[in-house]
Amino acid sequence: MKKKRNTAGGGRWLLCTTALVSSLGGTGFAWSDDFDIDRARWLDGRGYLDVRGTGADSATVTVANAGDPGATLATRRVEDGEWRARINDIDPVPCRVRVTQSDGSVAEADVRNAPADCASGGPVTPPPVVDNGGPGPQPPPGSNTPVLPPLAPDVSINSTSQHSDGVVLDPVAEEPIVGNDSYSVLAINDLGMHCGDLDTRISSILPPFQVLLAQVIQKGGTPILNPEGVEVFYSAASNPADPILGSDVFDGVMADGSTYKTNFWDFAVPAGTYDPFYPAFNPLEPDVTLTPLAGPPFNVTADVGLPVPNVEKFYIGTDGQVGGSDVSLEAVLHAMPGIAGPYTANDPQRADEHYVDKPFFINFPFGYVAEDVNWYEGAGAPFAAFDDFGRENAYPLVRVQARNAAGATLSTVDTVLPISGEANCANCHAAPYDLQNVNSRTSLPTDALEAAGLPVVEAEHDPDPNLPPRVSLEYASDINTLRLHDLKHGNKYVNTSCDTAGVDCVTEPTTADPCTIDAANPNGSPSCLTNKALVQDQPVVCQVCHYTPALDLAQLGPLTGPEGSIANGRNQLAHKSNSNVMHGHHGQFADLFTPIPAPVQNPDNGIITNQGERTAALEENCYQCHPGKNTQCLRGAMFNGGMLCSDCHGDMEQVGADFSANVSPSNPGDFVLDQGNFYNPDSNQPRVPWANEPGCGSCHTGDANDNLAGAPGTLVNTHDTYGNIDQIRLRQAFTTPDAKATPIVPANKRFAEPAVPAEFNGFENPGAGNPQLYRVSTGHGGVMCEGCHGATHAEWPNANANANDNVTANQLQGHTGSIMECSTCHVTSQLSDDTQGGPHGMHLVNDRRFWKEGHKDLAKRENRRPGGGTCGSCHGSDHRGTVLSRAPVDRSFSVEGRNRTVAAGEPVSCDLCHSLEKSFGG
User: Fold this and answer.
1) DSSP letters of 770-818?
2) What is the per-residue pLDDT for 152?
3) Going by C-beta distance under 8 Å and a sequence separation of 6 or more, which residues neighbour residue 666?
4) Which of 379, 383, 227, 352 is CA-nearest to residue 776?
5) CA atoms of 748 and 731, how far apart (whole Å)
6) Domain contains 851
7) 63 with 74: CB under 8 angstroms?
8) Residues 6+ apart with CB under 8 A from 563
């Protein structure tokens, strides 16, 4: 008989008492020593019968009322020796169940907590096939088993982050689409993926938070970027071909059939969980504060996002001078379009910020001012992971409008504001029982709790029986994680003892404040994280102690200080960064987080022969924490070409080896920022997460005639995905071997981010000469790089033609991929037919005047120059075409009475129309 853990009782063992009826008793039933019922119980508050046990792999088990064996309640398949059935809507509840395995084995067990009127015999009403508007039977927490969908329309739209009052039947109305005739809107999110917790009652990693960037272009020969009097608004939108519509999993539906969104405003905000990330004491304006978030001056209520400080006003002011006398602390709030009427309203919300220049941690050695970004920004919009009908759609769309002063819509574009709830700790820190039908990766964390006599929480212990199973699963795993943290590190806890009056917060940032947690006190002493969450009702945010630039919206750097100080309760000087503790700690468990091997290319065709092994390792590595196996957040052009996370960032331990590696409670404030330049591979300076990242130029190191392919340690891409010979671009952003995976910085900037200039209006940029981050870079005509190429990790195109990511480019230029059609922003008839003034030195694209006449003059000027001149930069020195001159879509055009065609992915070569020997002398 198999032992099961009694996780609610401090780690005691519970021996299941199951009555097995043996064939020796003369009943005719078979008996099997690997078949058993471990638990049968009725959960009245949740309204379901939970039956689970062991059996023979791949066998089928049938659950029935023992008093009426003909009344089948559920059928399940045994996986990895275990099975489980969660059965809803039974009337009446059986007093006893009988389970039959497909080999004839039978087991029976009494139903624990069965109601007094349970059915000892006679028919039992089984669960319905489908419910009127509500979900059908729900799977176990974390299960991949599809649930029966509610009666929802074939639409996925995300208009609000508030729960619904009941079943949602109709989608909100959408704003009309306006074509880009005289104006175009370029809109994108900044990172390619944002994450938010499904549950914030116990702990939180990231709040519901989005960043929309947009630019408006008035078309012309010389387009006008963000013309005067134009504003940007966003509202919820949908894609009729959204791939999520093929899913029947509605795991954001609550037990009563209503839609769950987030409990962020119910728990995290009123408890002050995110207050420490805002300076309560403002040295610039002592009377201006941003906290508390749950009260004035900012009332962060349902559907209202966190306030976002305007760092341009905070560091530069209105006079354009860094640190001038007119700097101020100001912040804006951005809301969901459904705030005025959840599930009925879809009111466009204005993007309330317009940045001219964007400071980026200018008080630190890697900082700089990103000049002339000139974009509208809607930061902090609180999108939650589930759409209005309860699907988790990580890629919701918003319709971005450009409006004039009269309120007329000039143009629209739909873009993804991604949000996933898949970034959590459940895969390893949930009770293995809760994940038995999926993949409980390890029992080590919960084993450590049990060995210490501490209880392991299961999803069924959630005090709110109405919540979706995945939310309860996160609730339980959060408690298990905090208990383990208290157990492992509690003896080293410190408090924020310094204050701003006379105490040096760098040299004396902490006083000892150890936490004690044991079997006698499973929630620990008051300084324990578990105690704060469960006893003091103060949910924990990891980054209050473990610094991350991602939540440092005011760009103040690591701080320590009590509530009311500029640090406002942060305790970051005594602890390593969040990136360091997460990547560095977990990276040591190579058996759990399988390292992603380097690519091995077939030299004849460039196919990565070990890509299956690499993607399997990705599932067990990055996707265990970053979203994720379902979300697949790495989904853009780099992924299409076979590049994975480690090809850009290095392995987990390299990512974790950052500037905080030496920091500890006994060695506070020892952040390494003075060892030179991280981008110099010979420097000892460790990376700063979110600030030192690879960029486009790390692999796109130049053009066809001037690049770093073949330089020592580079991993060159031999062929592209169409089979064309490459030998220009790299497929690894750093050289091999390089212990810190330093991103390559090329001298040729044709396809790279711009270098940080030496100064900004007299202010010396500390990071001068380094590459700017892709997400704050602009290029051709001041257009943001992401506006033409897509967001980080989601560069266009997405391989799924119907993907929401592709909608933006399709609307702007008629096909997916990078924005390449000049007519997106220009009136091309007003441009010179032989210009090379386009992005990256590009000529007119798909323009009859260029094909017919314009390129002749270019060719005459360039074809005799070394390397084929400027044409050779993309078409190659022999003008026969390279991967840099591929056609994005099928092209067809007429030359001298003959129709010429170029297929998508085919390099454009001069001999498509001409004899190279005659034209260029062989």
Assistant:
1) SBPPGGG-B-GGG-BHHHHH-STT-PSPPSSTT-GGGHHHHHHHSSSSS
2) 73
3) none
4) 379
5) 17
6) yes
7) yes
8) 275, 276, 280, 569
Instruction: Estimate the share of the chain in helix, then strand, then coil, as percent rounded to the nearest 5.
Output: 20, 20, 60
Nearest to 135 by CA among 365, 306, 386, 349: 386
Instruction: Count CA atoms closer than 13 A to 115's CA, side-chain side.
Output: 14
776: closest CA among 401, 367, 418?
367
Pairing of β 510-512 and β 494-496: antiparallel
The distance between the two most distant Cα atoms of the chain, rounded to a whole number of Å, is 100
Q: What is the DSSP letter of 108?
A: E
**What stretch of H or E contains 413?**
strand 409-416
Residues of the chain with pLDDT under 70: 1-33, 44-46, 122-151, 436-439, 499-507, 862-867, 915-922
Measured torsion, CA atoms of residues 484, 486, 487, 491, in degrees rounded to the nearest 10: 150
What residues pair up with 574 in beta bridges, in sequence order? none
Spell out the residues 6+ positions from residue 600 whose beta carbon is closer than 8 angstroms to its own.
Answer: 608, 609, 610
Tokens of 461: 């212990």
Q: How far apart (Å, rounded) are the C-alpha atoms in residues 902 and 861?
A: 25
* Distance between CA atoms of residues 823 and 269, nearest Å: 46
Strands of 278-325, DSSP E: 294-295, 298-299, 308-309
Q: Which is it for the CA torsion 894, 900, 904, 907, positive or negative? A: negative
Q: Which pair of structure tokens corresponds to residue 643?
A: 């590049």
Q: Report the pLDDT value the prediction gives residue 151, as an integer from 0 to 100.
A: 62
Residue closest to 465 by CA, chosen among 150, 86, 6: 86
Question: Please, are residues 643 and 636 in contact by the beta-carbon 8 Å criterion?
Answer: no
* Dist CA 209 CA 205 (whole Å): 12
Phi, psi (rounded to 5 degrees) for 498: -75, 155
Prediction pTM value: 0.85
Q: Which residue has the tokens 């420097």?
A: 683
pLDDT of residue 894: 79
Token code pair at residue 482: 């905090």
Task: Give the closest residue to 91 by CA, choosing from 123, 55, 53, 129.
Answer: 123
Q: Which amino acid would we find at residue 654?
A: Q
Which H/E stretch holds residue 402? strand 397-403
As a whole number of angstroms, the distance between CA 277 and CA 570 comes to 7
Give the domain CATH number at 7.
Answer: 2.60.40
Q: Which of 770, 751, 644 is nearest to 708 (CA)?
A: 751
Asked if residue 860 is part of any domain, the answer here is yes
How far apart CA 184 and CA 374 sit, in angstroms, is 15
Residue 753 makes CB contacts below 8 A (sequence gap 6+) with 695, 696, 697, 771, 772, 773, 774, 777, 785
- Output the six-digit token pair for 690: 């979110």
Question: What angle do the packed helices 469-489 and 444-451 form, to 10 degrees?
Answer: 60
The pair of three-digit structure tokens given for residue 370, joined into one six-digit string: 């990103």
Neighbours of 266 (CB within 10 A): 13
Cis bond before residue 665 (omega within 30° of 0): no
Measured in Å, how far apart are the chain's first and last C-alpha atoms? Answer: 83
Q: Minimal CA–CA distance to 757: which of 765, 749, 746?
A: 765
Q: Is residue 86 part of a domain?
A: yes
Give the residue numbers spanning the domain of 910. 832-920
Domain boundary among 532, 551, 570: 551
The C-alpha angle with vertex 485 and arms to 481 and 491, in degrees rounded to 5, equals 160
Q: What is the pLDDT of residue 853?
A: 72
Amino acid at position 497, single letter: S
- Report which of 345, 324, 325 is spatially closest to residue 335, judged by C-alpha positions: 345
**Among 502, 521, 551, which residue terminates a domain?**
551
The answer to the question of residue 875 being in a domain is yes
Task: Count Cβ atoms within 10 A of the Cβ of residue 479 and give its class: 0-12 exposed, 13-18 middle, 19 or more buried.
Answer: buried
Domain count, the chain: 3
- CA 17/CA 30 separation, integer angstroms: 19
